[in-house]
Write a structure and sequence with these properties.
Blueprint: H1 15-28, H2 30-70, E1 72-77, H3 92-97, E2 102-109, E3 117-118, E4 132-136, H4 140-143, E5 148-151, E6 163-166, H5 168-174, E7 182-185, E8 188-196, H6 203-206, E9 208-212, H7 213-219, E10 228-235, H8 240-243, H9 247-251, E11 258-262, H10 264-306, H11 308-316, H12 321-358, H13 366-383, H14 385-392, H15 396-401
Parallel strand pairs: 4-9, 6-8
Antiparallel strand pairs: 1-10, 1-11, 2-4, 2-10, 3-7, 5-8, 6-9, 7-8
Helix pairs in contact: 1-12, 2-10, 2-12, 2-13, 10-13, 10-14, 12-13, 12-14
Length: about 400
């Protein structure tokens, strides 16, 4: 008589069965599901809100540093061997604009010599007030990220008219408080088109009466009229260090007579600030995830204690420990997914409110929005692993006895 050893039957508990069972348990107990998901939702909401608030604050601070000149380079012609200025080619703005990482290029042209600026034609010639004339093309406004205190900047029509835009300090020295007034420049009247706010570290703009480039070329004569005196190059965010060394060759290929200056200390401060805020954002996200994980683990431990009778019944009907463990891990992941989706919505709303109150641009990293539900599932499954293993180790007899 041949004896056959007992061979365990293959498992018939498929992963789809685990998903279905987990979802039935989640949907059948809405109150417990809501309470269990609340901890996850708060954790993910904290993650999204804190990350959004940190990103919004970071964006505002970096924008202010950029406006002060952290992302700005100044390109100017240099003196040649004969001690004369070697002009930049007329194509310099176009070639610099093509450099990868350059956002905007603004051009100041050479101003006519000896053009004084006065409040009116009665001011003595000796009281110029330290105000100089600058000649700007319309693209300067975007390149230096200028802001208007009042009025407007040059456009295609006004760049050829006898009007001026005053820097903040120049307007204060002249006693001009609003556009529509007029000032006496170079022996004739100019209408005040606009007044700029302080230009940060570009102090030469603050003390200048700026004229339109087309008006100057059509009105004044001189060997240097229309030549590029300075180019302000605005780099894309965080790219000034990468492009600074290429600007000279781009502006005047093959010529060594080009000066490029960068506010390196401010750029370094920007980089340090960016890194510090990113580290802070990661730390806040880790704390939020830890809160969510603790909430899920606590909920799943309580669930195991409450459902010992169900576990014993399933074991007595043939469910294996691996089936019980898979069921509880899947259920924890499902609870985390529900909480994660709710948490993203709550966190985004909270971040929007905080940004509106602080007057900051709303920035919520897309990666956080997309990854938060997945992170919640991973954290939920991990947090539910110990309770699931604990449930799997329960003896069917002891579990049924607890009913």
């Amino acid at each position: 008589m041949t004896r056959h050893s007992a061979v365990p039957a293959p498992s018939r508990f498929r992963f789809t069965d685990a998903l279905r069972t987990a979802w039935l348990n989640v949907s059948a107990r809405p109150q417990r599901t809501a309470l269990a998901s609340l901890g996850v939702a708060l954790g993910i909401a904290s993650l999204t809100a804190l990350t959004g608030a940190a990103a919004s604050n970071q964006a505002q601070l970096l924008a202010e540093l950029d406006r002060m000149g952290a992302n700005l380079a100044v390109v100017a012609p240099a003196l040649g061997p004969d001690k004369l200025v070697v002009p930049l080619p007329d194509t310099a703005p176009q070639t610099v604009q093509r450099v990868d990482g350059v956002a905007d290029v603004g051009v100041f042209e050479t101003a006519p010599d000896d053009i004084p600026v006065y409040r009116n034609d009665l001011v003595p010639a000796t009281e110029a007030g330290g105000i100089e004339v600058a000649v700007a093309r319309p693209d300067v406004f975007d390149a230096i990220e200028a802001r208007l205190a009042a009025g407007r900047w040059f456009d295609e029509a006004t760049r050829g008219l006898p009007v001026t835009v005053l820097g903040r300090t120049a307007a204060d020295r002249l006693g001009i408080v609003s556009p529509g007034d007029r000032v006496w420049i170079g022996g004739q009247w100019y209408g005040v088109l606009g007044i700029l706010e302080s230009a940060g570290l570009a102090t030469q703009i603050d003390t200048a009466a700026i004229l339109g480039d087309r008006w100057v070329r059509n009105t004044f004569e001189g060997p240097n009229t229309g030549e590029i005196s300075t180019m302000y190059v605005r780099a894309e965010s965080g790219q000034i260090g990468a492009i600074a060394d290429t600007l000279a060759s781009a502006a005047s290929p093959g010529s060594p007579f080009v000066n490029v200056s960068v506010l390196s200390e401010l750029a370094d401060a920007r980089t340090t600030t960016d890194d510090a805020l990113r580290t802070l954002g990661v730390a806040l996200a880790a704390i939020a995830l830890l809160i969510g994980a603790v909430g899920i683990a606590n909920t799943m431990v309580v669930t195991v204690l409450e459902r010992r009778g169900e576990i014993g019944l399933r074991r007595s009907l043939g469910a294996r420990p691996v089936h019980i463990a898979l069921q509880f891990v899947t259920e924890a992941a499902a609870l985390a997914l529900v909480g994660g989706l709710a948490g993203v919505a709550l966190g985004a709303g909270a971040a929007a409110v905080l940004a509106a109150i602080a007057g900051q641009p709303l920035v919520i990293p897309l990666a956080i929005v997309v990854a938060s539900p997945a992170i919640a599932v991973v954290v939920g499954a991990t947090a539910g692993l110990y309770p699931a293993l604990r449930a799997a180790r329960l003896s069917p007899t002891l579990a049924l006895r607890a009913v």
